[in-house]
Design a protein that fits this description.
It is elongated, with a radius of gyration of 27 Å. The chain has 13 helices and 4 strands. It is α/β, with parallel strands linked by helices and 350 residues long. It starts with a helix and ends with a helix.
Length: 350
């Protein structure tokens, strides 16, 4: 047992000294966390302010009932136009005689979708008012999430950062251990110590799991300190998800190591795959945001399911319990199977 923990200590210290490995395991996900965190601001979502001038009070009340916008009142049209031109507001509404004017800065392409939505809502309200239409249905909206809290854009990204850290930690570490170590003769020296292959792969797996928890800790602490983010995780589910997903991503790294004999080629392939997964697996942005002809790609990339498990652990995704544990079991079996193969493939005495 002492030789096992000595090997764990040796591998852990070597990982800590390996700058490239530490970057991809811990710092790389944190970089994205900081970038997206400052882009999206805080963990709360705020409604856009719309300027109004000379607008019918009934129309304003109806728009306030939608709950999508806040309204700032101006005394006349000129003051509203001036505020939009100065960049104080992005959208404005005003009455010009019997016509409704929708004013906005067309250079700001980020608001075009919201302008279209506001145009449709105002048109429907005016038609209803002019035709004295009677309401036969009352529609109410009730926001609900499994945790009782609506997920924000930043929290969605934060859970994706955790998934990417698991991917990077598992995949790149296997290339280092069974690729670079083999090329440098480190594995050969470990084998000559008569440590059993099973103990070696177990030590490697334990170190990677510890690194995953280290990355999780750093990520959550920084998210709390800089962005006041607090995610209501079910820690039992999250801990098991982290362990099993790390083993699953290690299997992916072992597969690349077996396909590409040279560590540099395997590392390049892993970097390319890592980039594809970040942007096409629904990790940082929902899958339905992507064009329909590439959405299928997300469902064949394993990190999507890691992100789903993390979000389900926080109660942000409705994932059936059987599916949740089935995905975890799949990652566990796959990881253990590939580690067994690695023990026989890479740890044979020469």
């Amino acid at each position: 047992m002492s030789e096992f923990f000595s090997l764990v200590k040796l591998l852990f210290l070597d990982s800590a000294r390996n700058r490239l490995e530490m970057f991809f395991s811990v710092l790389f996900p944190v970089v994205f966390l900081i970038i997206f965190g400052f882009v999206f601001g805080s963990t709360s979502e705020s409604a856009r302010t719309v300027g109004v001038a000379l607008l019918d009070e009934d129309v304003v009340k109806e728009l306030e009932g939608v709950g999508k916008w806040r309204f700032k009142f101006f005394s006349d049209r000129e003051a509203l136009v001036s505020a939009i031109q100065k960049g104080e507001l992005s959208i404005g509404l005003t009455m010009n005689g019997s016509d409704m004017e929708l004013l906005y800065n067309e250079r700001n392409t980020n608001i075009l979708g919201e302008v279209k939505m506001l145009q449709i809502v105002v048109k429907n309200l005016l038609e209803k008012k002019l035709n004295n239409a009677r309401s036969y249905f009352t529609i109410s909206r009730m926001d609900h999430s499994p945790s009782g809290k609506q997920i924000t854009t930043f929290e969605y990204i934060l859970t994706g950062v955790i998934a990417i850290s698991v991917l990077s930690n598992g995949m790149f570490s296997m290339i280092t251990v069974f690729g670079s170590y083999r090329k440098k003769g480190v594995l050969r020296r470990i084998i000559l110590t008569c440590v059993k292959p099973l103990k070696i792969v177990s030590a490697v797996a334990l170190v990677r799991i510890l690194m995953s928890f280290a990355s999780l800790t750093v990520t959550l602490i920084l998210a709390r300190l800089f962005f006041n983010a607090s995610i209501p995780f079910d820690w039992f589910k999250l801990v098991l998800t982290l362990v099993f997903s790390t083993l699953g991503m290690m299997a992916l790294g072992l597969l690349l190591t077996a396909i590409f004999k040279q560590p540099q080629a395997a590392s390049n392939a892993a970097s390319l795959l890592n980039t594809i997964m970040m942007f096409f697996a629904g990790v940082y942005f929902p899958v339905h945001w992507m064009p329909s002809y590439v959405r299928w790609l997300a469902y064949v990339l394993p990190v999507k399911y890691v992100a789903d498990l993390v979000r389900a652990s926080a109660g942000y995704v409705l994932l059936d319990g059987h599916i949740f544990w089935a995905i975890n079991a799949f990652f566990l079996v796959l990881g253990l199977a590939m580690l067994t193969v690695a023990a026989n493939l890479f740890l044979k005495p020469e």
